[in-house]
Amino acid sequence: MSQAFTSVKEQEEHLLCRSYSRYPLAVARGKGARLQDVDGKEYVDLLAGIAVAALGHCHGELCEAVSAASRELWHVSNLFYQQPQLDLARLLLSTTHHGKAFFCNSGAEANEACIKLARRYMRKVKQRDACEIISLSGCFHGRTLAALAVTKRESLSDGFGPLPEGFKQAAAGDLRALREAVTPATAAVLIEVVQGEGGIVPLEADYLRGVEALCREKDILFMCDEVQCGMCRTGKFWAFQNFGLKPDVISVAKALANGLPMGAMLATDEAAKGFVAGSHATTFGGGALTSAVAAKTVEIMLRDHLDDRAAALGGRLKRQLEDLQRRLPGKIREVRGLGLMIGIELVEDGQKIWQDMLREGYICNLCQGTTLRLLPPLIIDQTDLDGFVRTLEKLLR
Ligand SMILES: Cc1ncc(COP(=O)(O)O)c(C=O)c1O
């Protein structure tokens, strides 16, 4: 451990709440898909701030957008009309069938907005006393109390109870279990098309279509959490678009402003009737500065066809990894994913490989103990992905 790293680590121990277990790496700066630590060592970033820096670090046009917006207007609150929020909404809604946006600050908040909208829509618009939200096993929807309640993972909610009521879970992939879970008290089903924190688990196309059809049959809302899998990552602008789905409501965050905190809920015009003035609010949501940066992010994603790029690079990477799995079946159990959202499930505990990859200069994430999770910037070079595969093979052998 270098002196520079030790100094950062020691300061943190005095200053911050113990709520994170950090990687042994103190990052000083970033450019594109590369990060540099406090000792000047360079890394290929295959995590992008957990699917946030989709355009890479310190993207030139975004730096200019921040700078220009910072001289116009930062924040006035949602008491006022302001154009940057509308410009962002127009651009974002142009990518989807949804008609209305609500802006907030994070993925958990976007899911809170979805949950509140679903409940209020059922009660006030449909005149049904339906408040239950059904999620799927293996999901992750955030760390606020309602997001924990919908996520239903003991290890995350330990010590935090009581959690809000009205949340149920069905086994992912099992349509019959979902059908049995739906009752007259159900307001909505909330799913991730590709489960991210659960270890990159794409749900089957037939199952996804079955979930949507069940929601239509039961006249309940179909909601997709696109916080991690949205915004070009899976090869379409939105992950649900890979399967021709039309969710009533989606939650968005992470890549939306490429690193500035910003979340959103997008709803169809019909579902959006669940909110009226005063129903829901947040001080910072859709602030002028973050909106300007998010609008530029979306503009670049559309202009540079980053959905197609994610599909092409991710498809090639997945084939390379599947090939590696065929050659090393005793080391790799499964390669899963869509676009540039890929999980490599190892046969044995992944801690050592993950650490060795970091030492070799490749940053990825280990989830569920055995899965290496790759969420690289969508602008990453082919050569960096090839280097990752070569290094992984070397270490596995
Ligand atoms: C699918 C999904 N939903 C929600 C969240 C929570 O987002 P945030 O950490 O911005 O609250 C995450 C975070 O990892 C996520 O992956």
Give a description of the structure.
The protein has 13 helices and 17 strands. It is of the alpha/beta class. Strand 1 and strand 2 (34-37) form a beta hairpin. Helix 3 runs antiparallel to helix 10, helix 4 packs parallel to helix 10 and helix 11 (306-327) packs parallel to helix 13. The protein is globular, with a radius of gyration of 21 Å. The two termini are 27 Å apart. It binds pyridoxal-5'-phosphate (PLP). The site of pyridoxal-5'-phosphate has 15 residues, from helix 5.
Strand order of the largest sheet: 4-12-11-10-7-5-6
Radius of gyration: 21 Å
Gap from first CA to last CA: 27 Å
Choose one word for the global shape: globular
Unreliable spans are: none
Helices, by number, come to 13
Bound molecules: pyridoxal-5'-phosphate
Nearest-integer average pLDDT: 97
Give the SSE layout.
Layout: H1 3-15, E1 27-31, E2 34-37, E3 42-45, H2 48-51, H3 60-70, H4 83-93, E4 100-104, H5 107-125, E5 132-136, H6 145-151, H7 154-157, E6 167-170, H8 175-181, E7 186-191, E8 194-195, E9 201-202, H9 205-218, E10 221-225, E11 249-252, E12 263-267, H10 288-303, H11 306-327, E13 332-338, E14 341-346, H12 351-359, E15 362-363, E16 365-367, E17 371-374, H13 382-396
Parallel strand pairs: 3-15, 5-6, 5-7, 7-10, 10-11
Antiparallel strand pairs: 1-2, 2-3, 4-12, 8-9, 11-12, 13-14, 14-17, 16-17
The chain binds pyridoxal-5'-phosphate (PLP).
